[in-house]
Design a protein that fits this description.
The chain is α+β, with helices and mostly antiparallel strands and 263 residues long. Helices cover 36% and strands 17% of the residues. The chain has 8 helices and 9 strands. The longest helix has 39 residues.
């Protein structure tokens, strides 16, 4: 039996130039508009105090946590964790409750408000490009990055690379790999030359926080199931309304049948 290797991303804020090529790649690969890409880049601008000033950009990405809070919070099993790293989302199971959005400490999942309840309630987030990695390719964003600010590989190897980079340039990097232990560990590892809080990343404990989500969901599952009933009733009501509308649109056929009944 072949051992399944845990893969991950490594993002190096020192190397990132904020070109947004990764966003373009995500848009093309997933056939989605640029303003709906599943990763986003934010230039943090100039930080610090004169004369010690720093500039940095951050590529925001699903963290693909080892112990995903979104998975724990979802009452219908729309999320799953693959043993090789990715956290997957199944829109066919989603009921649009958006508990995952509240549970994620990184603010990753976002709701597509352009889709109505009848059309479907969908959450968007990075998929880890399974259509590529399952065929031996790198995720689209990684393959496109011109400065190797994004890398993909086995998580243990990327951690080794990250720590070697810190040891070789202690004046350039903060002595910490974000995601190595935060929230139980993630599959998106981050190196930085500025405090991680300045990149918009939360300070989290090493212990996974999904236990809190699970306790909350014990009380909210009945509500979520009730919401599913409401959505079903709305869909049924719309269907019935359409049927009645079609019937009223055919008065001639009803008039022709009346004489036969009276006979």
């Amino acid at each position: 039996m072949t051992d399944i290797k845990h893969h991950a991303y490594l993002f190096d804020a020192v190397r990132c130039i904020g070109c947004r090529a990764c966003m373009v790649a995500c848009s093309v690969e997933n056939n989605i508009e640029m303003d709906k890409t599943r990763i986003w880049v934010a230039g943090r601008g100039v930080m610090g105090e004169y004369p010690i000033l720093e500039r940095a950009s951050m590529v925001y990405h699903c963290m693909h946590c080892n112990e995903p809070d979104c998975l724990s919070a979802c009452p219908v099993g729309a999320y799953s964790k693959r043993s090789d790293g990715p956290v997957e989302y199944d829109p066919k199971k989603c009921i649009g409750c958006r508990y995952c959005m509240n549970a994620c400490p990184f603010g990753v999942p976002h709701f597509d408000y352009d889709k109505g309840l009848i059309e479907g309630a969908f959450i968007d987030k990075c998929t880890f490009c399974p259509q590529r990695i399952d065929n031996g390719q790198e995720p689209a964003c990684v393959a496109t990055c011109p400065t190797d600010a994004l890398e993909y590989g086995e998580r243990d190897e990327l951690l080794k690379i990250a720590h070697e980079r810190i040891a070789a340039h202690p004046d350039r990097y903060i002595d910490h790999v974000y995601g190595e232990f935060e929230n139980g560990g993630t599959s998106y590892l981050i190196l930085s030359h500025v405090p991680f809080s300045e990149l918009g990343l939360p300070a989290l404990p090493e212990e996974p926080v999904n236990e809190i989500s699970e306790k909350v969901m014990e009380m909210t599952i009945p509500f979520a199931l009730g919401w599913g009933v409401v959505l079903t009733a709305v869909a049924a009501g719309v269907h019935l309304y359409n049927k009645k509308t079609e019937t009223k649109a055919k008065p001639t056929e009803t008039h022709e049948e009346e004489p036969e009944v009276n006979k």
